Amino acid sequence: MSDMKKSELIFSSLLVPVDFLMFLVAGVAAYFLRVSSLVANLRPVMFALNLPFQRYFILLIFVSVLGVFVFAISGLYTFKAKKRLFKEFFQIIVAVSATLLILILYIFFSSQLFESRFIVLASWVLAIFFVSLGRFFVKKLQRYLVGKYNIGVHYVLIIGHDKMTRKVIQEITKRPDLGYRIKKHFSELEFEKIKRFLDNNLVDEVILASPKYERSEVLEIVDYCEEHRIGFKFVPNLFQTMASNLELDTFDSAPLLEIKRTSLDGWGRIIKRLIDIIFSFIGLLILFPFFLIIGIIIKLDSSGSVFVKLDRISQKRKFKLYKFRSMINNAEKMKKDLLDKNERQEGILFKIKNDPRITKVGKFLRKSRIDEIPQLLNVFFGEMSLVGPRPHQPDEIDRYEKHHKKVLLIKPGMTGMAQISGSSDLPFEEEVKLDTYYIENWSLKRDVYILLKTFIILFTDNSAC
Known about the structure:
Layout: H1 3-35, H2 37-40, H3 53-73, H4 85-109, H5 117-149, E1 154-159, H6 163-174, E2 180-186, H7 191-200, E3 205-208, H8 215-227, E4 231-234, H9 238-242, E5 246-251, E6 254-259, H10 267-301, E7 307-314, E8 317-324, H11 331-334, H12 360-367, H13 375-380, E9 385-387, H14 394-397, E10 413-415, H15 428-440, H16 444-457
Helix pairs in contact: 1-3, 1-5, 3-4, 4-5
């Protein structure tokens, strides 16, 4: 086993006692919070005689063991070089909730009396917090050791010469804490040269960063990596990306594979729409006073309406997108005179960093993304979703190439993969790739991840203009 695998195995194994300890800490904290004067004065303690701390602690040990077992089943101890923070946090919430649900079902079916619902609820919240905190420090320790002492690094060989290859190399070079070190870069897929290098050097993974190679050439390097137990990763081409969403059917005993337009189908579409209705309605109710305040500020700053209604296209239908007005009147008519100042020359989108049409208040509204909050109305009316591709302008769509139109298959969103991956600084082609990936690989869990990350980015990203 390589040093890299040993290191990842050690840190993954370390998570087991850390998680167990954090479950214990959460349970003990919940117990003493319940019996403290802060809570006991509001609701008298009724269970202290039936469940003294010593007996409670023994029960807590068994529950903590159960929690670690549920974590293992949930895949929280699989070792990878790079784990997504928000994805792991979501897994922790689900696994802790499942552990508590099993405990509640046991109490119900065994006819055991446990009168403190507060402890159950507090343990749930505190377990999520402490387990996440423990894993955060383990991850920080691992990244520190990887970044400073090269403990557990992945030595990679990269193949490719296009823009995507340069992007992969740049990311690896810029982020040494991710644990990757470039051993060699081959511009072309020359199997014999690559084979000789792999025979004489320690390499943990081969990354085929460019998808523009013949199938036979790729299969040679794949077979070699499989034979020598070297990891192989590749950037997929368009068809390979589409093929990740297949459905098997039969026609008179002949198997048929359908490449579906999107995994967002059937019950998934229904659940997504219900979530959109519920959360947009709640958001509009809570933010109504805020709408009035922003409206007054906009009116005092410049003449014109509080809201603007912009033409956008969704699923081949035109709709009006609502935003707080952040520009002067007739701003759209001025656009043709500013086209030569467009900073997005590589694509078909329009962006000027210091757009002269933006008002003083509008600059703040855009930077803080407050101008986009009225889109909750579009979500409630079913024209948009909370999560989805960026809403597209009719004049942009007229210039789309065929593969760009994939993003029109589902409703646009207030946030999405592109917004959490670079927002307005992202090249148009990269935005299309991210939105296409979202459409092909939709899941409710991914929507929650995107919403959580959007909330964080609201306070850290300054790319809006």
